[in-house]
């Protein structure tokens, strides 16, 4: 066994304490399996929080990374580059969008979107039209603007004053939106499925109503698809199944298959407000990230891969139902595709992390979405046998917690 000079204690010694990672340290991954420093094997249902859409160390992503690494890594945006142009072209081919802005993360993609909606409104209506409507329990990233637009007050604690002009409404409440939106509203921002907020899908009528209200008040509709995008729901982007087309869409996480990359997609008309010098990103659109992302989306945007995402969802549901027939601790299973949230019954509310820790002990990597919801966002190509093995580990974890 390899001897390591760093371990979990090292984290406490040298890292800022904004995270509380588990005791084990993963050192190697292949497909939907991960091995830690001690050589212990885990099934990965977390996917790096919906990032590793093709699992760990996919051979074609490795090939794309190696090939580009021998050509060109970084230029700055004083120049453009072929991988960025090819990736932007592919994204506009796949989606509603006509223009693309590249960055490095979902937070940055949202920051760009929130700046753009205000700039677009300023250009077309003046400074009074600056109000952004968002929704409670939403999550849009960790920059100051992003946590302000996000609907979870805990992420803003200690950072006041935060940017003004943001209103939060109950999610899926069309009447509240009707009562609040006005000609001073520059944008409505929403996740088609709230991820961090508990894996809560938007109602179809809510989305259609939001689109109509935005059109009526000349406001932009922004979809945060950082977590739902790039095949996660069984569509390449979740909006494609809603009958509603946004004006701006943000995407990251699965976009790079594990390599840091983000993008904001929009229309020709809206993009004009980001004229020369209005926004930027030093690393955004770098050749290395774009080459990997192009390979990732070409692998994911495949009819069979996307169809398999939906069939694997049903396998997860069936296994969860089987576990629940024995233990009766799941109140509801939510989500689409391979973004799955399992709400615990009231008796177990606040204890999601206990199940997370027990799962890790049983060789399963999983997530939570708040204190009451277990979350799973595995590789989109996770083998069915890995799902079954992971669910067997989850059943052992549930038994351990319930019988403790």
Describe the SSE topology.
Blueprint: H1 8-14, E1 26-30, E2 33-36, E3 41-44, H2 47-50, H3 59-69, H4 82-94, E4 99-103, H5 106-125, E5 131-135, H6 144-149, E6 166-169, H7 174-180, E7 185-190, E8 193-194, E9 200-201, H8 204-216, E10 220-224, E11 248-251, E12 262-266, H9 268-271, H10 287-300, H11 303-327, E13 330-336, E14 339-344, H12 352-361, E15 364-365, E16 367-368, E17 373-376, H13 384-402
Parallel strand pairs: 3-15, 5-6, 5-7, 7-10, 10-11
Antiparallel strand pairs: 1-2, 2-3, 4-12, 8-9, 11-12, 13-14, 14-17, 16-17
Keywords: Amino-acid biosynthesis, Aminotransferase, Arginine biosynthesis, Cytoplasm, Pyridoxal phosphate, Transferase
Binding site for N(2)-acetyl-L-ornithine: 142, 281
EC number: 2.6.1.11
Describe the fold and architecture:
With 404 residues, the protein is an alpha/beta fold. It has two domains: 150 residues, Aspartate Aminotransferase, domain 1 (Alpha-Beta Complex), CATH 3.90.1150; 230 residues, Aspartate Aminotransferase, domain 2, CATH 3.40.640.10. Helices cover 38% and strands 18% of the residues. The chain has 13 helices and 17 strands. The strands form four sheets. It has a seven-stranded mixed sheet, sandwiched between helices. Strands 1-2-3-15 form a four-stranded mixed sheet. It has a four-stranded antiparallel sheet with strand order 13-14-17-16. Strand 1 and strand 2 form a beta hairpin. Helix 3 packs antiparallel against helix 10, helix 4 packs parallel to helix 10 and helix 12 crosses helix 13. The longest helix is centred in the C-terminal third of the chain and has 25 residues. The model has no long low-confidence stretch (mean pLDDT 97).
